[in-house]
Write a structure and sequence with these properties.
Distance between the termini: 40 Å
Number of helices: 5
Shape: globular
Structural class: mainly alpha
Radius of gyration: 14 Å
Number of strands: 3
Strand content: 5-15%
Order of helices and strands: EEHHHEHH
Length: 134
């Protein structure tokens, strides 16, 4: 099995294979990360948001110098995950890179504990906002 940036580690890895439908890729739990996976699955199916990243439109808004942002890292990690979700090459992904990137911005997520979905969504959306705020 070939590992990618979403799966290096001691938890379940990403699995290459054709998803049952475009964008219908499973997300492996990274410890107790169902809170994270439920948010990612919901955001993944908001078409304007997904297309903004998949078409690369976000690159024109990327602000690596915003002192409130992550230097563009949250937006880049989210884009990479969406690219793999919609790329048709994986049946399941371990969203490790995005989780770690958000944890660098919001350290309370730097563990394998259960967290609140709304709280994670708020931090992810805030990270994307600050990374793309010009």
């Amino acid at each position: 099995m070939k590992s990618n940036m979403h799966g290096a580690g001691f938890f379940r890895e990403s699995i290459r294979g054709v998803p049952p439908a475009p964008g219908s890729v499973g997300l492996h739990n990274l410890g107790n990360s169902c809170f994270l996976n439920s948010v990612l699955q919901c955001l993944n199916h908001i078409e304007p948001l997904a297309q903004y990243f998949l078409k690369g439109n976000y690159k024109g808004d990327l602000n690596k110098n915003n002192p409130l942002g992550s230097g563009g890292n949250v937006a880049l990690a989210y884009s990479a995950l969406l690219t793999d979700i919609w790329g048709g090459e994986y049946s399941a992904l371990a969203p490790r890179q995005l989780k770690q990137t958000v944890a660098n911005f919001a350290p309370q997520f730097n563990n394998s504990y259960q967290h609140d979905s709304q709280e994670f969504c708020s931090f992810l959306m805030d990270g994307l906002h600050e990374d793309l705020n010009r």
